[in-house]
């Protein structure tokens, strides 16, 4: 029995994979900068340019964090691990496939959760706009993370190298930003199911509601529609990724 097998038996497999992924992310300069410095720098610049916070601006920041920290970072990391044959070796370990997937996505998602906390604190202090409904905002953070992680696995299916991710993630970014802008330019009570079905649309609607509507999540009108839309979109992305994702480089 190898040391790796013994380690997997002592600790839940997905947790071991997640810990290794966090360390690998921070060692890769390109991925580390994409996951941390770039999104935070964008928030600082935008905050300096406009001292007055708004729900729309907060939602925009959240979607940008999702795009950089979860979507782009996970896509690049998966492409790098596959090119290095790490995914092939990992799949031969005692960890089940679902545990591997959860562990690989856990690192970028945890970074995003930390950045989301900083984002909320920044808007509360600099923009004088604390979240008025943390439950709704938490729903935006969680559903957005799941959706973008699923999109990353789907995009990684067509990404052979980390460098290629700069091109393969562009359509996903366009969809996220397009869905966000479409919702932001529509009054909250006029957002349609089609807008919510676009990745980025439901998250934007939830984030905007989290900063504008007080009360419990069940008492906020229209909140469950974007939650359901986000769940459906992430489920579709997960099913497509499960069918198309490759554990080994193309021969």
TrEMBL record:
GO terms for cellular component: membrane. Keywords: Membrane, Transmembrane, Transmembrane helix. The chain crosses the membrane at residues 30-48, 60-79, 100-123, 135-155, 167-184, 223-245. The keyword Iron-sulfur does not apply. GO terms for molecular function: ABC-type transporter activity. PANTHER family: NODULATION PROTEIN J (PTHR43229:SF2). This is ABC-2 type transport system permease protein. It comes from Stackebrandtia albiflava.
């Amino acid at each position: 029995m190898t040391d790796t097998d013994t380690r997997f038996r002592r600790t839940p497999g997905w947790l071991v994979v997640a810990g290794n992924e966090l360390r690998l992310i921070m060692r890769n300069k390109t991925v580390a900068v994409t996951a941390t410095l770039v999104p935070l720098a964008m928030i600082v610049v935008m905050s300096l340019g406009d001292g007055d916070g708004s729900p729309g601006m907060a939602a925009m920041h959240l979607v940008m964090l999702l795009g950089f920290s979860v979507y782009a970072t996970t896509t690049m990391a998966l492409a790098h691990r596959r090119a290095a044959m790490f995914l092939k070796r990992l799949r031969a370990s005692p960890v089940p496939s679902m545990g591997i997937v959860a562990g690989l996505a856990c690192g970028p998602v945890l970074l995003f959760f930390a950045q989301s906390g900083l984002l909320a604190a920044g808007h509360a202090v600099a923009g004088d706009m604390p979240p008025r409904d943390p439950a709704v905002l938490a729903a935006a953070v969680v559903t957005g993370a799941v959706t973008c992680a699923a999109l990353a696995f789907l995009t990684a299916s067509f990404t052979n190298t980390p460098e290629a991710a700069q091109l393969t993630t562009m359509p996903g970014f366009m969809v996220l930003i397009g869905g966000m802008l479409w919702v932001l330019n529509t009054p909250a009570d006029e957002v349609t199911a089609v807008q919510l079905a676009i990745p980025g649309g439901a998250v934007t609607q939830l984030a905007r509601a989290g900063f504008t509507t007080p009360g419990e999540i069940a008492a906020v009108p229209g909140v469950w529609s974007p939650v359901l839309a986000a769940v459906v979109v992430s489920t579709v992305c997960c099913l497509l990724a499960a069918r198309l994702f490759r554990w080994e480089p193309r021969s």
